[in-house]
Write a structure and sequence with these properties.
Immunoglobulin-like, 1 helix, 7 strands, disordered N terminus
Amino acid sequence: MNRSPGLVLLLTACLPALAGDADVLDVDVSCNVDAICRFDVTLKHGDEGWKHYANRWEVLSPDGELLATRELAHPHVNEQPFTRSLANVRVPSDLIEVVVRAHDLEHGYGGKEVVVKLPDLE
């Protein structure tokens, strides 16, 4: 078999890009009357191992203020999509919605974000 070294190099160079960005697929949020909330977030990412995986998701105010971060301690290669939770998140009482975004080690931010309406606290 005759293989072109240039073709093999080109295909190998493209491999890290195959996993793509980390996408937020779904967010379930519940809050108590004190605006302390729990977020259950479902992510999808083509985790490839320790050098390329979705390593966190974040809750932000609509103007970009970071409210909370859920670190993901390991790759989820064989568990896609997956859901992880974060409780005891204090949300400013004047907010009616938040943004949830994900991050991966290779691409950073850039995947699908979800805007979530917060439940009424009354």
